[in-house]
Design brief:
Layout lengths: L8 H4 L8 E12 L3 E5 L7 E4 L7 H5 L6 E10 L7 E12 L15 H6 L8 H23 L3 E2 L5 E2 L11 E2 L26 E3 L4 H11 L1 E9 L12 E10 L3 H22 L1 H15 L12 H10 L3 E4 H9 L2 H4 L16 H12 L3 E7 L15 E9 L3 E8 L4 H10 L8 H8 L5 E7 H9 L20
Parallel strand pairs: 3-5, 6-10, 12-13
Antiparallel strand pairs: 1-2, 1-4, 2-3, 4-5, 7-9, 8-9, 10-11, 11-16, 13-14, 14-15, 15-16
Helix pairs in contact: 4-6, 4-7, 4-14, 6-8
Length: about 475
């Protein structure tokens, strides 16, 4: 039995001294010619090759070295004579830690479609693609925490179960422990939520923003980073029912401060991945290039993944108002030729993904920060501009993604906020605690929400949001 401490493959691939005794434990990716084992232990996207002396190895043991099997090998680290690797292990001792039936294991050493891998999401971590995606996801999460920590922000844990709807959207998952078969009812026959666990109707949160504002009005600069839930029946490549959101709130900040903070955060995160994941990005870049070979020339990306990330990280984001954007879109060729699915005719239209992507990918050819939207298409808490028609809202649009950040300067004036709530039929008594921040020491403040999966989607070059979260939750999808 091989009991010695293992060395991670990532470390071994970087050594420059040979002849040392090493122990590696991992999973078999391939086994060729009864002697060359490609082993991966998850520490790197790259495998290490272990060479077995098959003539002096028990044949029954060799038959158990199958794709997916977990093994331990002990041997000498030697300079490799083959192409593609610097070192390999000359095996002296080999142990099977866990067998894998080659006939039944679904991940054979061949190219699998992402659709197929989604069906076996519990095993897709074992592929190079998902090794790269989830390593980058981890690093992006770490970079976000580091960015805010280094700037003196306080990480606030906001509730997952809430009694408020921050967006006013109404598309929420209800939380209850009442019996579905025979719930208690009031005299007029309605479900009596006073007998529910929390004594009222509660839901899974759609946003931590309102609670984060409470923190910002005392701690100055806070951020949340947690799961959020939307019960929208959106079965698309860009929507999930459960996703993660980053939501900073900053006291004494206006919309310009807010836009700069968001731009700084996005560039910091992208640069962090460029610096720390060259191997993963190179793999994903080549994967994307192979995928795009199937597309017509005019549908292929102008830049490869790594070039695109470097370009965005070094570009000044284009800033313009909603009104300016509407004029550009109204006069654009796709609009005039009726190529847009949703034609832009009048000021006040709610911009769709096709419009956002036109501005980013065709017109400006870089990320865009859109500001000052019509109040009718934005949430109640956004600060009303002097024109009485628009609010201090902000969306950041990215190539290939569309909206990646949505935020605003918040309405700090109590009378204005109460009027907006009346206009939008939001009951003030349910949000008394939120209005208290305007009653006692109100101050200008701003914040935004960054959809974490959309950031991961952009940085990895993946095209379906279900491929950048380990276990996707979407309509009719709640496996594992």
């Amino acid at each position: 039995m091989i009991a010695e401490r293992r060395t991670k493959i990532k470390e071994l691939l970087n050594v420059s001294t040979y002849g040392t005794d090493v122990v590696v434990k991992g999973w078999v990716r391939t086994f060729r010619n009864n002697q060359f084992i490609a082993i991966n232990d998850g520490s790197t996207i790259n495998n290490i090759q272990a060479v077995v002396d098959y003539q002096n190895t028990d044949e029954a043991l060799l038959k158990r070295i199958t794709t997916g099997a977990a093994i331990a090998v002990k041997g000498k680290l030697i300079e490799s004579t083959g192409k593609g690797q610097k070192v390999e292990i000359k095996v002296e001792q080999l142990e099977i830690l866990g067998d894998s039936d080659a006939e039944k294991f679904p991940l054979q050493p061949k190219k699998h479609s992402l659709e197929f891998l989604r069906e076996i999401a519990h095993l897709r971590f074992r592929t190079n693609t998902f090794n790269a995606v989830f390593k980058i996801r981890h690093s992006l999460a770490f970079a976000i925490h580091k960015f805010f920590n280094d700037r003196g922000f306080v990480y606030l844990h906001t509730p997952i179960i809430t009694a408020s709807d921050a967006e006013g959207a109404g598309e929420m998952f209800r939380v209850t422990n009442l019996s579905f078969d025979n719930p208690p009812r009031t005299e007029n026959g309605e479900v009596d939520f006073k007998q529910d666990f929390f004594g009222k109707t509660t839901n899974l949160t759609v946003s931590g923003q309102l609670e984060a504002e409470l923190g910002a009005m005392a701690l100055g600069e806070v951020y949340t980073f947690g799961p959020t839930f939307r019960a929208e029946n959106s079965n698309t490549t860009r929507h999930l029912a459960e996703f993660w959101m980053i939501e900073p709130e900053v006291a004494f900040a206006d919309l310009n401060d807010n836009a700069q903070l968001a731009e700084d955060l996005l560039k910091y995160c992208i640069n962090y991945v460029i610096t720390n994941h060259p191997d993963e990005l190179e793999f994903l870049k080549n994967r994307l290039l192979e995928e795009e070979k199937q597309k017509p020339m005019d549908e292929r990306s102008e830049m490869d993944l790594v070039s695109k990330l470097n370009f965005v990280a070094s570009s000044e984001f284009q800033r313009l108002t909603y009104t300016e954007a509407i004029e550009i879109l109204k006069n654009s060729a796709p609009n005039k030729k009726k190529k847009f699915k949703y034609l832009i005719e009048n000021w006040g239209a709610d911009l769709q993904s096709e419009h956002e992507r036109y501005l980013v990918e065709k017109h400006f050819k870089k990320p865009v920060i859109l500001t000052d939207y019509p109040k009718e298409i934005k949430a109640f808490y956004m600060r009303l501009n002097e024109d009485g028609k628009t609010v201090r809202a902000m969306d950041i649009l990215f190539p290939g993604i569309g909206e990646i950040v949505g935020g605003s300067q918040r309405e700090e004036r109590l009378e204005n906020l109460e009027q907006r709530m009346r206009d939008m039929h939001i009951p003030a008594e349910e949000l008394y605690w939120y209005l208290d921040t305007r009653r006692f020491g109100t101050a200008p403040h701003a914040g935004f929400g960054l959809g974490f999966e959309r950031l991961v989607l952009f940085v990895t070059g993946m095209t379906n949001i279900r491929d950048v979260i380990p276990f996707p939750r979407a309509p009719k999808t709640a496996e594992f």
